[in-house]
């Protein structure tokens, strides 16, 4: 384990060195913030979060799982609080409660007459309430507030390594199972008819989302991570119909939001997580207005171009 951790930290150092080379090519005003070590780690972490969340965001949007992302992000709170009390790494407690909540939602949906939206709402509000009750009994909750709202400027090597490992896992899973995921996303019945185990794909994708959310806790925080799992994919969905292109655009939106939000956070001394999400929202609004086929201006122009029949 120590050898694997040492290899992981060496990989993190190598990525930071590559990042510094890229930063060195920037003009002085843009490169100046990254003279500090905490800004270098924040930039690498933000880019990793923007990339992974951007990729998975496509599945969340196409499967209409926005409420599920919200449910998982809130459900990890009691796990974080219990891990804090027991002195465990936050990742372990958060992943356990996130996974249990996801499986609970699936079990209620499959074995009762309750629909998925009600099951999600039931589970995530109960888990979030449990987390609030536990936190209210903890004397010092300063660090837990960082988990709630994010602290990308305070990311340490261990959190950066966790984000990197979860990102590698997410990319490997999507790359290896791209076709089953594609079929399951657009036509689950056809995927089942072709012999794919749709139940395993369903729960596997949920666990992958849980892993990504947990790994993003210390950057954008529990409350805002759900935005990074929805907004980039929604923006890309306005611009294209193809999943591969949508993923590339969504990753681009995630990375641009992370980098620009980090600059805004540094120069204007505002919360980093909130700045990143607001930039992503701004990009969505631009796409909503200007998208070639699905934008508001394009729709207005098509309606205006339809000829009016005489006497109509």
Automatic annotation (TrEMBL):
The chain crosses the membrane at residues 6-26, 38-62, 82-108, 120-139, 159-182, 246-268, 274-292. Keywords: Ion transport, Iron, Iron transport, Membrane, Transmembrane, Transmembrane helix, Transport. One of its GO terms (cellular component) is ATP-binding cassette (ABC) transporter complex. It is a multi-pass membrane protein. It comes from the Bacteria. It is found in: Cell membrane; Membrane. InterPro entries: ABC_BtuC-like, ABC_TroCD. One of its GO terms (biological process) is transmembrane transport. It holds the Pfam family ABC-3. Belongs to the ABC-3 integral membrane protein family. This is ABC-3 protein. It comes from Alkalilimnicola ehrlichii (strain ATCC BAA-1101 / DSM 17681 / MLHE-1).
